[in-house]
Amino acid sequence: MDIIESVIYRRAYGLASDLSEARSHRLAGRLHDAPGAGGDAAEVLEEVRRRMAVGPEHDERVAEAVADARAGRRPRW
């Protein structure tokens, strides 16, 4: 994995983690009103892809990061 993929993974992981917990943490500046907030894995993945706007060559890395965040695993990189 190169540096670009690592950065994409970490950004996607962080955003997915924030979106996943957004409904339970309704604080100022949080994402509780964002599309996909607190939703199922497909909704969170769609919102992360939309916000990050990375090319299709990075879809697998983004999906991997979302799956890790939703499962409560620590980031891989």
TL;DR of this structure?
The protein is an all-alpha fold and 77 residues long. The chain has helices at residues 3-21, 41-52, 59-71. Helix 1 crosses helix 2, helix 1 crosses helix 3 and helix 2 crosses helix 3 (59-71).
Counted up, domains total 1
Q: How many β strands by DSSP?
A: 0
Profile the largest sheet: none
- Classify the secondary structure makeup into a structural class: mainly alpha
Low-confidence stretches: none
Q: Determine the N-to-C terminus distance.
A: 10 Å
The coarse silhouette is globular
Mean pLDDT: 83
Radius of gyration computed on alpha carbons: 12 Å
Helix content: 55-70%
Strand content: under 5%
* Secondary-structure element order, N to C: HHH
Helical element count? 3
Task: For the structure shown, list the relevant keywords.
77 residues, mainly alpha, 3 helices
Structural notes for this entry:
This protein has 77 residues and is mainly α. The chain has one domain. The protein is built from 3 helices and no strands. α1 crosses α2 and α1 crosses α3.
Write the layout of secondary structure elements.
Layout: H1 3-21, H2 41-52, H3 59-71
Helix pairs in contact: 1-2, 1-3, 2-3
